[in-house]
UniProtKB/TrEMBL annotation:
It comes from Pelodiscus sinensis (Chinese softshell turtle). InterPro entries: Complex1_LYR_dom. GO terms for cellular component: mitochondrion. It comes from the Eukaryota. This is Complex 1 LYR protein domain-containing protein.
Length: 62
């Protein structure tokens, strides 16, 4: 079974709800960025948001 992968552990209800809140926040940030008038600023802010969320992906401190 060299190609078998273990499934990630199931989320608790609290973790699931927090994940939903984080995803909602990310969507709201992207929606706000769409209203920025200049393309260069939109691109910069979108990359910034993406990197910040990636950087804090494994954060557990609420």
């Amino acid at each position: 079974m060299a190609g078998a992968r273990l499934l990630p552990p199931a989320l608790t209800l609290k973790q699931f709800l927090r994940r939903q809140q984080v995803l909602q926040l990310y969507r709201r940030i992207l929606q706000a960025i769409r209203r920025v008038p200049t393309e260069a600023d939109r691109h910069y802010l979108k990359e910034w948001a993406r990197e910040e969320f990636k950087k804090n992906k494994d954060a557990i401190d609420e």
